[in-house]
What we know:
The structure holds two protein chains of two kinds. Chain A is globular and about 40 Å long. By secondary structure, chain A is mainly β. Chain A is built from no helices and eleven strands. Chain A has strands spanning 4-7, 10-13, 19-25, 31-37, 43-51, 54-57, 65-67, 73-78, 87-94, 103-104, 108-112. In chain A, strand 5 (43-51) and strand 6 (54-57) form a beta hairpin. By secondary structure, chain B is mainly beta. Chain B has no helices and eleven strands. In chain B, strands 2, 4, 5, 9, 10 and 11 form a six-stranded mixed β-sheet that branches. A five-stranded antiparallel β-sheet of chain B has the order 1-3-8-7-6, with no helix packed on it. The N and C termini of chain B lie far apart (41 Å). Classes of the chains: A mainly beta, B mainly beta.
Amino acid sequence: NAGVTQTPKFRVLKTGQSMTLLCAQDMNHEYMYWYRQDPGMGLRLIHYSVGEGTTAKGEVPDGYNVSRLKKQNFLLGLESAAPSQTSVYFCASKRRGGEETQYFGPGTRLLVL
Amino acid sequence: GQSLEQPSEVTAVEGAIVQINCTYQTSGFYGLSWYQQHDGGAPTFLSYNALDGLEETGRFSSFLSRSDSYGYLLLQELQMKDSASYFCATPGAAGNKLTFGGGTRVLVKP
């Protein structure tokens, strides 16, 4: 099993450009999450999904959109990137009922110039 | 809302013991998790306390006191590879999502 994978690993964008980050998991987990982590700080939840076709806002959703068309995939979109969105983005997943344990992907480093 | 407070940094030598404290304020409480993250890596799950008391997993132990809204992660027999950031986290009422503390950076010196 690959676990949780993220594409791409690194990306540089210019202000105003758009992009989509892809997260895939092969553990048949119901729940998936997108976090951002800024230098020296903790993880902040952007959006999450409790099942295929459902999404919900997290702590810092502004400037991002998400979609969960398939159970194994969770996409994070930036429609018009801003320098404040420079960060490391982590995707995570967990099984229903597994409140304590989330499984994280390797992260995507995004630089917005 | 939920908030978790941790010290920002701890330094210790190899072989020593380090205790990382986590105090929380939550509207309802459903347990405390601990995650480890090495520089440039992803967070990985270490332990979870649903009830008061001590949970031991090898060199790492985690403790919870719900009456004191407090928990800690104990790292024993420190090794260089334990240099990492450690985060406490708690799930919300529905168990759908975790709220993370700001993390404690542990630096192990020879």
